[in-house]
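Customer escalation, tier 2.

The customer says the design service returned an amino acid string that "doesn't look like it belongs to this structure." They asked us to rerun it and document both sides in this ticket. The original structure tokens are below, unchanged.
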């Protein structure tokens, strides 16, 4: 995809003021079904474009404001509108900063996002830093409160450490509390983790970027954002981000939840998506209301003792079955049988050959 086409993707996704569902509808009808570029979309006859993409009056007015900036008139000319020129400049800056742009039509776009999320939730574009192949591993999400208790944070750290140490990709949202602790637990090993930001990549502080960049360059951390590079943190964006965190994972683990808010909604999304949802349950007298409610709604209790977690055999006994379940689901989604099943099938085939000889 050339620079101008990438700029048009940025323009449609972030500058036209359209809902995600509308952007995805345009991409499906114009780009996928009609096999046309977004450069052609902005340069097209208004009536043809509106009829083909089933656009309503509100969307048409928003697109007309973009069109009035003379994008269509100069699409094939050296004189671009200031708005399009701005997006071209951003594409070039992305290249300089080693930030990659991924559209929903790219082969590398995560398949789980296209298969699980609907048009009103699926990000049309993703920005990322790092190795996308990390998403090809068994992926387990750890979610929880920004104000979690010390017990929940201890559970989070030990769980992320064990999962990453044993080959899983631990995905989290990089907010304070459980998210950040999951990240720290994962990077304390030589394992892998994916960070899904609730804001634009440029909104990472200098200290945060300084800390995460060496791990990205080493191939252990994948940084993802579905938002414009300069988008600030908002509650609504954190909620949108949670859809992606859950959709990327084969298994979801809740460290601590209230009965409302981002973790609660993310956990309910996991149940709706038929994701295995494990909920931390400790021996402390005060049972967390959110954790208890999630278990009542179908979450699987994950009994946890902080004292016993210091023993590797205890941690392994609790988390190893979750890893195995994640592996089974991952292989099923990939269309590949687990190695143990492949070996079992191979042995059966060999026995048949032997008996028929």
């Amino acid at each position: 995809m050339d620079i101008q086409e990438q700029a048009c993707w940025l323009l449609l996704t972030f500058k036209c003021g359209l809902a995600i569902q509308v952007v995805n509808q345009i991409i499906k009808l114009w780009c996928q079904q009609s096999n046309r570029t977004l450069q052609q979309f902005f340069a097209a006859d208004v009536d043809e474009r509106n009829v083909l993409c089933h656009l309503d009056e509100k969307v048409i007015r928003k697109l007309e404001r973009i069109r009035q900036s003379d994008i269509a008139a100069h699409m094939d000319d050296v004189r671009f509108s200031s708005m399009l020129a701005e997006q071209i400049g951003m594409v070039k800056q992305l290249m300089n900063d080693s930030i990659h742009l991924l559209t929903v039509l790219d082969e590398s776009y995560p398949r789980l996002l296209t298969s699980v999320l609907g048009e009103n939730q699926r990000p049309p574009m993703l920005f990322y830093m790092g190795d996308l192949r990390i998403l090809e591993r068994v992926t387990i999400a750890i979610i929880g409160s920004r104000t979690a208790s010390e017990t929940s944070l201890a559970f989070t750290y030990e769980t992320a450490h064990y999962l990453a140490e044993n080959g899983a990709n631990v995905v989290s949202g990089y907010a304070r509390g459980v998210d950040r602790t999951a990240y720290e637990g994962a990077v304390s090993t030589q394992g892998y983790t994916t960070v899904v930001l609730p804001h634009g990549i440029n909104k990472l502080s200098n200290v945060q970027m300084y800390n995460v960049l060496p791990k990205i360059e080493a191939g252990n951390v994948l940084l993802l954002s579905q938002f414009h590079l300069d988008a600030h943190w908002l509650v609504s964006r954190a909620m949108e981000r949670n859809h992606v965190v859950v959709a990327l994972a084969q298994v979801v683990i809740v460290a601590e939840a209230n009965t409302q808010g981002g973790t609660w909604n993310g956990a309910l999304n996991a149940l709706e998506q038929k994701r295995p949802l494990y909920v931390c349950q400790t021996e402390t007298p005060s049972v967390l209301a959110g954790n208890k409610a999630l278990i009542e709604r179908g979450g699987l209790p994950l009994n946890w003792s902080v004292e016993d977690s210091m023993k590797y055999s205890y941690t392994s006994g609790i988390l190893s079955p979750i890893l195995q379940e994640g592996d089974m689901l991952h292989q099923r989604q990939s269309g590949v049988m687990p190695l143990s099943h492949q070996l079992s099938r191979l042995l059966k085939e060999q026995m048949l050959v032997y008996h028929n000889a």
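Tier 2 assessment: The sequence is consistent with the input. Confidence is low (pLDDT under 50) at residues 70-80, 337-346, 352-357. The two ends are 56 Å apart (CA to CA). Sent an explanation to the customer and offered a walkthrough call.
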